[in-house]
Amino acid sequence: MSKHHHHQTKSAHFSTKHLLALFVVYAFFIFVILTLVDLFALGLLGFLWITVITVVGAAIATFVHARQGQVTDVDEMADKL
User: Fold this and answer.
1) Cα–chain-centroid distance for residue 61?
2) pLDDT at position 80, please?
3) Which is it for the CA torsion 26, 29, 35, 38, positive or negative?
4) In total, how many domains does the chain have?
5) Shortest CA distance to 39 belongs to which of 25, 50, 29?
6) Region of residue 7 (left: phi > 0; alpha: psi -120 to 50; beta: else)
7) pTM, whole model, 2 decimals?
8) Tell me, what's the pLDDT at 3?
């Protein structure tokens, strides 16, 4: 007979304010990374593309994060905003 161990994880339902804060945190990280990549690529992306990729990437990251429903370190950063 095998014993099954169930790991309990924190799950949460996020408020609109928290989701907006998550979006801002993810957008900041994506923007910084893309800006550094663009700096080393000698400005090949351009500010418009960086902005579009940042907004789309942050929206996807926020959606996936909220769908997972688990509290992570990113939530702690978002709570500090």
Assistant:
1) 4
2) 85
3) negative
4) 1
5) 50
6) beta
7) 0.76
8) 53
Residue 34: count other Cβ atoms within 10 Å of its Cβ: 18
Does residue 10 lie within any of the structural domains?
no
Residue-range definition of the domain harbouring residue 21:
16-79
| Per-residue pLDDT at 78 | 87
Residue range 1-45, pLDDT digits in tens: 555 444 444 556 778 898 999 999 999 999 999 999 888 877 777
Rounded to a whole number of angstroms, the distance between the first and last alpha carbons of the chain is 49
Half-sphere exposure of residue 18, counting CA atoms within 13 Å on the CB side? 14
- The rounded Cα 44 to chain-centroid distance in angstroms is 25
Determine, yes or no, domain membership for 11: no
What CA–CA distance (Å, rounded) separates 13 from 29?
Answer: 23
The phi, psi pair for 44, rounded to 5°, reads -75, -25
